[in-house]
Amino acid sequence: MIDHWQSQLQTAWGLDAPLIRLDGEYDLNFAAGDMIFKVMRAGCDPQLIDMQVQALSLLGGQRVPAIVPALDGALVQTLPDNSGADRLVWAMQKLSGQCYADASPKTPALAAELGSALGEMDATLAGFDHPMLSRDFKWNLAQGGWIADHLDQIADTNRKGVLRSICDDFSTLTLDNSPVQAIHNDANDYNLLVTTGAASRRLTGIIDFGDMCAAPRVCELAIAGAYLVLDHDQPERMLAQMVAAYHAVNPLTAPEVDMIVPLLRMRLAVSVVNSTLMASQNPDDPYVTISQAPAWRYLERDGEHPKLVTARLRAACGFCARDGADRVLAWLDAERGNFAPVMGVDLANAPMGSLSVENSTWPENPFDLPAPEAAQIGQEFGQGPWLGYYNEPRLIYTAPAFRMGPWAASDRRTVHLAIDVFMPAGSPVYAPLDGTVLVAEYRDGHLDYGGVIILEHQTPDGDAFYTLYGHLDPVFTQTLSVGDKVGKGAAFCQLGDTGHNGGWAPHIHFQLALMTDGMHGDWPGVGAPDDMYLWDRVCPNPAALLNLPDAKTRYEPVDKSTVLQGRQSQFGANLSLTYSDPVMLMRGWKHHLFDEWGRPYLDAYNNVPHVGHAHPRIRAVAAAQLGRMNSNTRYLHPAQTALAEKILSKMPDGLDTVFFVNSGTEANELALRLARAHTGAKGMVTPDHGYHGNTTGAIDISAYKFNAKGGVGQPDWVELIDLPDTYRGQGGFADQAGPAIAALAAKGHGVAGFIAETFPSVAGQIIPPDGYLAQVYAQIRAAGGLCIADEVQTGLGRLGAHYFGFEQQQVTPDIVVMGKPIGNGHPVGVLVTRREIADSFAQGPEFFSTFGGSTLSCVIVKEVLDIVDDEELQTNAQIMGDRLMAGLRDLMETSPHVGDVRGMGLFCGVDLVVDKTSKTQATALCSYVKNRMRDHRILIGSEGPKDNVLKIRPPLTIDAEGIDMILQTLGDILAEVA
Ligand code: PMP
């Protein structure tokens, strides 16, 4: 058969590429080179093909397949099949990409791209007409009402009820509100093509126009949406992205937007009813039930209420939350100043108090707000009245109810949807206008509302809206019932005390709501930052009802793009910024960080916050010391010697003399001077790709910098040896020290020393082979040089099994350099050496570093080292490091791109490769993974000469849950590109 078509198509289209048969239920589909041939079933209506060919020609190949005419110029040919029957045949260009159904990740950006593609397509198709468009067929959603007659086929009564209510909603729609035009009518996940590979997925094409028909254009969105939402963890956000993007290129009206959700549900209903009917004809086909499962999972899920989804779509398009909401807002604005004072006093001059992520340190631990702290929130602003902001992101909502995902560090609701008025407990609360009690409850959970009342109101035009009063004294439950009328100015409740208001400092949470659908049982008082476009419209600023201006009470977090612009204009271009979408971080706690909107991030990258971000002990000693004095090492202070004693207690015998400086760089500069002073020589030997700091001298010994593009180049007094990389290297690394020493000698240089990061870090988290440093040190020492261990990355317990990296290598350096983590964010460098080396250095001029060893630095560093011991963070690094390494090794088994995992304790590298045989560095993939991890709110880094090694190096506080979050997320992301 295929030979028959090969020769037919050769004659008709001049085809020379071999035909490959593709799937197709009734028609024959072939791929050949960059073309697709469609051989229609015998008896196929030529008009149906004509409709598609005309539409595709009109769309002109933009994200749709271009029609390829036959040699005689005809778009459609009639050719005989091998039984002699006539078949309609046509050809089109093949589009690249995989189908959306198989693609991952399915991102909001991709949904937006689909929305604009459909919008542009429909705008063009609006001018298309064809007799076949108005044929009757079951997939015209506007005619979907046919399923109502078949609901008896659905055995499950609950499901039948779901379908019945979908049909009822459908029957109330005014479909005339959306213009009838030609639409694709089947943008399902097998008819969309997207890019593959280690870059964000992009839409490459929309195919299969066989279901085109004339229908209200919103059916296009409802149908595409019906597939977009299936088995997605953020279906509403996906839908909103698609609809907003469609609206941007092909504007919709609000009544049209209102029909999308009911039509989407109707499409899924048509789909399950249709497949149930087919199943009754083929009772043994399991595929039918399997194919229904995702639709049922969506229809039966406990997700966002359909009316709230509609409000979301409206908001995403810039419309008000529901029909009439704009009238309510206009009326409230006009009446501002005329409402009865809710707290009985004029609030015009009441001060605002910010509890925001950026302005406050409430709560100390953003994962746990204990009762005593909750009772004191905002105490710095006094007894009141003072006001808490609308739209303010806060970290005080720590209860599990606010969390939106499985992890402690998952996204959470942070943004306040109300205005607070802080006043003493017992203060009476008055109704701002007439209302009817809709809800009067006592919710006694920790950090819940305590007593809560919702009043329903009407504008003179008859539009309803609602006001919510939270954190009340529940005494009202004895007198007030649902349905009671409350007159304007009537005192109907009072502020609760901490024991009865959810545990908070006494205040009222005063919220406005323009609708209540889907909010029952929860009455959200805070929203997720990424949903604020919705909440801003459903629960807008209630300032008018308090007779206050909106501007006074609305909080605006610092704007990231303004800060970015400032940075670009104020700083040099080689001050690099991580991530294609940079993060702005405002608060931290242990191994967690929070951005300006309170979005949490797991910090799996930063080694500076060694004992965790915002450690209360560091904060306390720093504040106390700054309150006393802060000076330098020209004067005596016991903090200096106490710190020296602590550091030396961690050192092997012989290393007995300490220098304090400001940075790792400065410590390495000093190490160079000490080595030269002690040996009288200048030459240095160091492994390739090392990094020791950013000053002239430190760069001279940092191949990572001097050999970088535009770098200063290698000085003649520096000799490089190969990186001890056992994954890519050939071995024999230590043997290169001898030739390096000889090369220095040949240039007239003696050997002052050897410097190495004990475990090379920027070179890609390398663990040198056992015995490596012992061998190198022996050769350097035999040549008269000193051995310098840069422990900035590896020291202070990070390796778990060892306090310093050199212990693992079983060597004792002559000089040890420490930096970054030792100050937990405070700038400090420390150098330790032997007395005789310090004595040689003391022959020269006085040594003084103004800030090195400042009183403040000394107390902070001593506290950091004590915390490592007191909290047993070295042991934690070992346990968590083992857990991480074990999980990473599992990923190495399953992922074709994980070439090597290496590490010790919480110093880990994941070497990503194109394939495991060539070990070619997968640089683009590494960047993709790093950015995707950031999308999932996990910060990791990338390193290595080809920037293909994921660097995982969290604060030592990380716990099992944090490790599991990294492993699970990394596994998911690697699966996206497998
Ligand atoms: N040595 C090593 C191994 C480092 O990683 C760094 C900084 N990343 C430095 C020295 C320089 O430290 P600083 O930036 O504090 O000067």
Detailed description of the structure:
By secondary structure, the chain is of the alpha+beta class. It has an eight-stranded mixed sheet with strand order 11-12-14-21-18-17-16-19, with no helix packed on it. A seven-stranded mixed sheet has the order 26-32-31-30-29-27-28, sandwiched between helices. A hairpin with a 2-residue loop joins strand 2 and strand 3. Helix 5 crosses helix 7 and helix 7 runs antiparallel to helix 8. The structure holds 4'-deoxy-4'-aminopyridoxal-5'-phosphate. 4'-deoxy-4'-aminopyridoxal-5'-phosphate binds next to helix 17. 4'-deoxy-4'-aminopyridoxal-5'-phosphate (PMP) binds next to helix 17.
Shape: flat
> Strand content of the residues, in percent?
15-25%
User: In which order are the strands of the major sheet placed?
Assistant: 11-12-14-21-18-17-16-19
Count of helical regions: 27
Residue runs with pLDDT of under 50 for 5 or more positions = none
Q: Number of DSSP strands?
A: 37
Classify the secondary structure makeup into a structural class.
alpha+beta
**Fraction of residues in H or I helices:** 25-40%
- C-alpha end-to-end distance: 36 Å
Overall average pLDDT: 96
Q: What bound compounds does this protein have? A: 4'-deoxy-4'-aminopyridoxal-5'-phosphate
| Rounded radius of gyration (Å) | 35 Å
Largest sheet: 8 strands, mixed
